[in-house]
Amino acid sequence: MSGHTPRETWWKTRSVYQIYPRSFRDANGDGVGDLAGITAGLRAVKALGAGIVWLSPIFRSPMVDNGYDMSGYREIDPLFGTMADFEALLAEAKRLDLKVVLDIALNHTSIDHPWFQAALADPGGPYRDYYIWRDKPNNWQSIFGGPAWSKPEGDSAYYLHLFDKTQADLNWENPAVRNEIYGAMRFWLDKGVSGFRLDVVTVISKPPGLPDAPDPRPMPLYHMLAGGPRLHEWLRDMRREVFDRYDCVAIGEGPGLNPERAAAIVNPADPMLHMIYHFDFVDHTGSRQGEDWDRVWFKSVFDRWDKGIGPDGWNSCVVGNHDLRRFIARFGDPKAETKLVAKALAASYILQRATPFIYQGDELGLGDTIITKVEELDDVWAKTTYRLAKSKGNSEAESLAKAVAMTRDHARTPYPWTPEGGFGAGKPWLKPTPNRGGVDLATQQGDEHSAWAFCHGLLELRTKDPETWVFGAYEDLLPEHESLFVYRRGTHGLVCVNLSSEPWPLPEPIVALLAERSCIFTSGDITTTQMGPWSTQVWA
């Protein structure tokens, strides 16, 4: 262990609970989750054992991209409440000893932002240089499809938007832009937040001259732009001007980064960000979804990132979030018992040498929702998928199936507080996921064998023995096994998980290790010779 006293850093020892504000809890009965609802629900986060609450965007926004199109960096969107509501949330979090982390988009703003509106109104004014303009577009394609350049009506130039045409890329070459961003972050830190998740921060630095891309398609372009020529310079600047002035954490969303490139950004000897929110599980590249998903690949992601970041840097561990189907649908088996699958997947990532991120509902084993008609879709991406499928001659059933298979609505349904729902008094903005028997907080908090209780127990292990379960060295003992995931933590911690619906005998070397240890946590019967379907055992 290096000399920078990692045991004193709260963002390593605490785990993160991600809240999707629109769907967590509705306090005023309008059908939409809000800040007052989050405040009322923080006790449940504390009871689970998480120590950091990450809020998906709550800033002012037209909500074309669910808040990642920000039109005011220092304002709360009225959809969620007022600044007073947010200050009450912070006060309750402080009372419960929970840290609050905000999601902020630094690469772009909404075209509704006053800066962009001023850039349109006065092409010769100072705000024009807040964005990236060209008389002739290059060949770059938007991540959301179509050209990455749009020309406003009545304007002579095109502006860059790597994402939706309503999200104009900021010109980070302009020091005034950087100062505006730094000031906005200090504004929230002064209010008492404990850090930020920096949305797509790895693409803020564009190549000089904005040349055509060898492959202008969205994902190859994204990987080409990740880690541009001035990224490290600006992240060091941000660290000096913002993060080093506060006891806070900076989590960089890092699509396009591999572990080696990420390691440079979180290297304590040249500090920029504290951890990278990587996309290997988000993209699930190399994984087959459904019951035949690739377990060897799944395990290799943990190993590759642990080795790549190394003992001095720090990892995040993200398996589910608001942009994905539920993790038990992606990495489970529909024929297996939901509770066992949820427990096995939780043990796979919560006890890694990393800060685990738990997305709301995953601790319950909440599965995908049921969508039977196109009118039940909310996700704009899914609606586009449906329309494109129909335009290509697919039947109604085929088109809907394509949309349901990928829609982000699965993760965005209202949180199930009680068997009846408990989200709020009004009709929810999105149809809830049907309760498939006990997949709600109230039921599971009263059941010592529930997925919630199991997740709580794993988080408690990290708290009680951080030397082993937070900082201990990581080693995958069966990297090539097609179903068993057995990994060591520190000198005595051992986690055994069967990621399949078939029983598997434990190899003799593992049996020998278990003989020297005691089972401290299990999802079923204790055995030292074989693992039952989707069973989990933790030994020390």
Characterize the structure shown.
The structure is a single chain. This protein is of the alpha/beta class. Among the domains are: 373-406; 473-539, Sandwich (Immunoglobulin-like), CATH 2.60.40.1180. An eight-stranded parallel β-sheet has the order 13-12-11-5-2-1-15-14. Strands 16-17-18-22-20 form a five-stranded antiparallel β-sheet, with helices on one face. Strands 7-9-8 form a three-stranded antiparallel β-sheet, with no helix packed on it. Strand 12 (249-253), helix 9 (259-265) and strand 13 form a beta-alpha-beta unit. The longest helix is centred in the middle third of the chain and has 17 residues, at 175-191. The two termini are 21 Å apart. Mean pLDDT is 94; it is low at 1-6 and 284-288.
Please outline the helices and strands:
Blueprint: H1 10-13, E1 16-19, H2 21-24, H3 35-48, E2 52-55, E3 59-60, E4 72-76, H4 83-95, E5 99-105, E6 108-110, H5 114-121, E7 133-134, E8 149-150, E9 158-160, E10 167-169, H6 175-191, E11 195-199, H7 218-225, H8 231-241, E12 249-253, H9 259-265, E13 275-277, H10 280-283, H11 295-309, E14 316-318, H12 327-330, H13 338-350, E15 355-359, H14 380-391, H15 396-406, H16 409-412, H17 441-445, H18 451-464, H19 466-469, E16 474-476, E17 484-489, E18 493-498, E19 504-505, H20 508-515, E20 519-522, E21 530-531, E22 536-539
Parallel strand pairs: 1-2, 1-15, 2-5, 5-11, 11-12, 12-13, 14-15
Antiparallel strand pairs: 3-4, 6-10, 7-9, 8-9, 16-17, 17-18, 18-22, 19-21, 20-22
Helix pairs in contact: 3-4, 9-11, 13-18, 14-15
